[in-house]
Each structure stands twice: as structure tokens, then as C-alpha cells.
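RETRY 2/3 - previous attempt timed out on the joint model. Re-submitting the same 394-residue input unchanged.
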Amino acid sequence: MLKQSKVFSFWVRKVDKETRARAAVISTPHGEIKTPAFSPVATRASVRALDPADLKKCKSQVVLANTYHLYLTPGIEIIKKFGGLAPFMQWNGPTITDSGGYQVSFLWGQNEEEKIGRVVSITDRGALFSSHIDGSRHLLTPEKSMEIQHILGADIIMAFDQPLGRQYSDKQKIEAFERTLKWEERSFVAWKKLGNKQALYGITQGDTDKRLRRKSLEFILQTGFPGIAMGGESIGKDPKITADTLDTVADLLPDDKPLHALGLGGGPEGIFVGVARGVDTFDNTSITRLARNGWLFIYPEDGGNIKNKFRIDLNKRKFAEDKKSISPYCDCYTCQNFSRAYLHHLFNTKELLVFRLASMHNIYFINTLMERIRKSIIAGELKDLAKVWLDKKL
RNA sequence: GCCAAGGUGGCGGAGCGGACAAUCGCACCAGACUGUAAAUCUGGCGGUCGAAAGGCCUACCUAGGUUCGAAUCCUAGCCUUGGCA
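RETRY 2/3 succeeded.
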């Protein structure tokens, strides 16, 4: 059973000798998170196709949901009546919510001519946007985001920020960066007023710009956020850029605060890159999206490597008669029971069952990888594990 | 046997005299998928040369024919489906 404690805490059990990787435990009012850990994304209070029992079966310790989406539907009044996001979705473990900053800025520049689902304006006051669902207008501010996240009741919440998008001009980037600092400060103040029961993470921005990233992190540390999140496109884009981004602040990262990488991408390779640079927790949507689209993860023992991104595409005809499981080395529910041929058939016929089976495998796979990474850090063998997976030095 | 409709790329199915190597869907091949507007999106899909633009060749059941020009019109044959016997 997971230990329950009233307060949020973070303690490091073991630090890797050669990298910044560490095995730690994040303790929350709803249970512990043994890190490094992956958090599946349950945007609208559901990890698509999976229920809490499935998630547990896949060794998930925590899920991340979204302020923007839940605020729009079903609306916080309804969730409030259920006592928060976790009781609403019947998840009894730790939860994280994102602040909505990313979603709003994501709407920007995507479709400015659209009537529905666009940013109307972003000013220091907040982000005025039209809902992608019905076009209704809403103003999201740092204070509003904190209030919503307070009602959602996650154990870990995020400061309201404006990530730097690729489509931004240099001027816009600086504006967004400076604005994020102001917004985070206001998030912090609002969070204190609400009783600071949840662990608020400050989000560093700055893309791959060393000066900005450091300024951002220094600000967060100085303000006193309980945790740190790394945001922005450069965290998830590809392992090389992820590495560059994290390296800009490597020496500033504190030992006593958890680091969450928002949308850490790059599959297993990206995970090693992130963990070696101090990432404790991360979320990523592509793990489950890839599953739904037919891409299933395979271990190095199955032939998984950096080149094939540790995955196979079960839509491919060549799997139509394949009696093997996705991976003979996998203990997940799907691999224990079903063949590649069957899954190929389900993808081919668009049978809904496949979303569940495929998502379960990919989540179990990543969680298993995280477990192995944790064990290897504790055993002082991270380097060896990385060699097996990446076939190169970490 | 008679009547009717029809035979087009792996399949379904457009096109019904020039702008057709032939719309589209499926399948197939290749790719993408950072805090999920993603059960999504992109590209390819006769052969060949070319980096590309583009060129050349072979193609719309078969064989003839009409025409400057035919997947498209005519004749014959073969085949399929439906109706009547």
C-alpha cells in the first residue's frame, strides 16, 4: 500500500554518480510517486480508453489532467460537487493538473481566422480566448487558473504560463517570456491566498536560450515554488533539443525540489536524456496517442532501438498472421493474452477494443522502463541500462 | 432460351469522344504525432528515366471498326448480375 501523508514532500533516495539522474519519492496526500516516473495524460479526466483499474494494472502512479478542458466541460461547478477531479474520475492516486497556459497559447496562431477555438488576445491581464467547443469567450488569468486548479484538487498544480511557440516572432517571444514571469508570480500569490495546500510548480520558459532559461529558473527558485516544471516546445521536440534545453540550467537545478518535464518527448531515448538531466516526473500525450494510432513500443530485446524509435506499427500488413505478442518480453495484460495478428485485425477493422489494449501496452511499457531506470539508479547501474537501450553512452 | 443492366488500377466505384495514367473511398507502402480540438494528419500508390520540372512506354474484358483523336461511338465474341421462363 502507498503511504499517505497530509503534506507534499520530496526526498531523494539515491543520486547517480555520473549524471544528474536520481531516484526519489514524491509524497502527496493521495499517495507516493516513486521517481523517475511517467504520468499518463487524462486531459478530460480520462486517459482515453482506460479506466483507473486499467491504469493501476499498467503500474501508473499518477495522472495528469487539464484545467482548460475541464473548465470548459463539464465545468468546475460540477467537479466541485464531486469533491474534485480524482473522486470524479474514481482515481484514488496522486494527480497533476496543467494550468491551461499551454492550451491557450496552442490556440494562438493555429487558426486566427476561425470563429471558434482561437486566442482573441493575450495581454498581461490574461488570455482571452474563444472555446474550441462552442466559441464562447473566456478570460483565463493566473488567479482564475489557480482557482480552477484549487477546485480540481490535484496534488500537483502548475503555474499559469505562456509557452514560447515556434510561430512566435522574436518580439513576441520576449513578450511572452516576460509575461510568464509576471503570471507565475501572480499564480504564486493566488495560490498562497487559497491556502497553498497543493504543490504548485513554477514553469521555466526560454526555449533553448540559455540566458532566458536561467533567468526563468532563478525566478522560480527565488519565489519559492515547491516544484519546478520545464515547459516549452524544446522539451518535447527531439532528444537532442531536450538535452540542450535541460543543459542550459543543469547547474542551477536544486537537489531538494522535484523537476517535472512537461510533455517530455522522444520516446525511450528522450526519457533517458531527460532523466540523466534531473527529470523526476514527466507527462506525454504521444505514448497513448501512438498506441491508438497503431505504434506499439518494443524492448531492446525485441529489436527496439533509437533508429526505429523502439516501436512497431501494427497497422502493417506483415503482422496479419503474426502469432507473437507485441513483445514476448512484456508482462502487460495485452501481451499476456493477445497476438499481433489479432491487434492488427482490430486496428484494421477499427474495433474499439484495440484502443484499450494498445494503450495499456504502451503505458505499461513506459512505466516498466521507468521502473528499470529507478532500480538501476539505486543500484548504481544507470550507465549500463542506458548502454543496453541506447547502444551508446548516456 | 428471352429481356435488362453491366464489364475501368488489389477491391468498390466515378468518368461516357479531346483538358485521362484516369475523381473518390478502402486496402497497401512510407512518414509524422511536446503540458491531447488527434479514433488524427501528411505523402505515395501502372512501368521507366530524372534531384525536380517533366519525358517516354504500356493501359479502362477480347478482337475488329469509325474518327485528326476512343475508357468513352459501332460490330462481333467472351464473361458477370438481376428479371422472366
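Chain A has a mean pLDDT of 93. Closing ticket.
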